[in-house]
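Hey Z.,

So I finally got round to the guanine thing we talked about over coffee. Here's the setup:
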Amino acid sequence: MVAEIISGNAISKQIREELKQEVARLKANYNIVPGLATVLVGEDPASQTYVGSKVKTCNELGIYSERHDLSADTDEQTLLALIDRLNKDTKINGILVQLPLPKDINENNILLAIDPKKDVDGFHPINVGKLMIGEPDYLPCTPHGIQQLLVRSGVETEGADVVVVGRSNIVGKPVANILMQKRTGANATVTVCHTRTRDLYSHTKRADILIVAAGKPKEITAEMVKEGSIVIDVGVHRIGKTKEGKNILCGDVDFESVKEKVKAITPVPGGVGPMTIVMLMTNTVKSAKLAAGVV
Ligand code: GUN
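And the result:
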């Protein structure tokens, strides 16, 4: 069997088109322009690329964007003061602080300072808690993008054995939470594996849907997956450069061997990555509508 490729490029494009129309409708009917502020501290090249793509996508969709790039030695007070200003700014509906932050800044203090109504990442404890009790306002972008990839490519999650590898606050924990919800596009039986899991193979091997956010290049090999299963690869690793100087990327899954065995798989790049950005835009538009009381 050769797997179907679940294209995040194609599915994110569909959602982009839907959003573009929604942004145009909000402008025409209510004179509303959703606004996103991005905050980047330091010069990490991967983070710079991610923030650049977010700003570019805002421009393409007609969403107002404001980019705040701060030096790596920025202190916590300065960052908190910026967040306070953005919380009060009515042009801004979403505030995205790119993670990870430099180690001298306490990440939890920063996430706690963002107005939960503008927390389009869904990382504020209030939004984490709302998801946990099944009443979410904003779903975290990467996990929400994974759910959309599954739903829009016709993968049945109802009653499925989902195995998540990785327990981060950004992907592993929230994707487990989302897929165990009592609602359509979820209702799965979810197992979360991590670095202390005793026998990873025994879990991955029985997954109908395997979601890998482990942070290790090509960790999941063909013998670790079930024949006919669905594999979602969240990892992105730079493993070299082409002659033209472009980055060569790979995921947490050994794509070449695994694709011979499974029913469907996401590629890297072009799988989960483009979904994260488009779900951020979805949350920003939702926030603008909630702020204006528009449905
Ligand atoms: N770093 C890696 N993924 C994310 C994300 O979804 N949001 C933010 N703010 N930072 C990240």
